Amino acid sequence: MLDERLITALHVEALRRDELTAEHEAHVLFQASTIAALLQGAYDGDVTFSELAEHGDLGLGTLNGLDGEMVALGGRFYRADVDGGIHPVPATARTPFAVVVWFQPSVEFEVEFASGEGDLEEVLNTRLPAGAASCAIRVDGDFSVVRARSVPKQAPPYGPLAEVVAEQHVFELHDVSGSLVGFRFPDFAEGVEVSGHHLHFISGNRSRGGHVLSCALRRARVQVDPSTDLHVELPPGVELDGPELTQSTRKALRRAEHAG
Predict the structure, then answer these.
(1) pLDDT score, position 252
(2) Residue 132: which of 186, 195, 63 has the closest Cα?
(3) Which domains does the chain have, with CATH numbers?
């Protein structure tokens, strides 16, 4: 069952595509589908990127067929291909999973240290306002290394994510300036979203990027936008209160998010 703590903390609202209207509310997250559906192989979505752009200017996700990693920054949408190359996303392309927000940070600070991703997450957690269940994050800075990954486009019939992650391409970007973009969700969001920190990277020259597995940061400006509401668009056949993640799908999710 859907954890009532998530509903209480984020005021979750489920929508179908014919109920979508343009939203310009601050601190409101908009999500296409659920991570549980993606884990089960639902790689074709019904929301176009022109529609997604009506709900936020910062975020992350993927494209139909699990065709790489998506980064939304400054109202522009980019795709990191299987080798980490960056390409603009056509407005007519569709997404099976994405999260965006009209980014209006209320917490901003500078950091200057050589840090692993775990250290950065600890810093972020200590600076969140009390009671903030989730937040959108933007980190602009200089990195000594970003370890990232992307996945090759899949063809139907689609297999589960547990099979796809075995094909993921892992690469490292050294001495690079750019932006980390993403979200932090509580543990009880798992299934609807990725629990913990979920971050994608794009270089300042918009040439390289991907899903962040780990990073080492030299200095950066951090901006955090705590979120109060989560609106989830559900494609046909996808329910918000879907089946609980099995041990194998949890393992696949951990590998896809944090392992090589």
Answers:
(1) 60
(2) 186
(3) 4-258 (3.30.1330.80)
Q: Which residues contact 7 (CB under 8 A, 6 or more apart)?
A: none
Q: Could you identify the residue written with the tokens 């269940």?
A: 133
Q: Residue for token digits 């990195």?
A: 143
Q: Which residues of 81-114 are buried (b: 16+ CB within 10 A; e: fewer)?
A: bbebebeebeeebbbbbbbbbbbebebeeebeee
Residues of the chain with pLDDT under 50: 1, 260
Task: Enter the DSSP assignment of 98.
Answer: E
Nearest to 170 by CA among 214, 140, 138: 214
How far the first Cα of the chain sits from its last, in Å, is 31
Count of beta carbons in the 10 Å neighbourhood of residue 199? 27
Q: What is the CA radius of gyration of the chain?
A: 17
| Residues 128, 115: Cα–Cα separation, whole Å | 19
| Tally of CB atoms within 10 A around 192 | 26
pTM beyond 0.85: yes
The whole-angstrom separation of Cα 255 and Cα 247 is 12
Rounded CA separation 159/167 (Å): 12
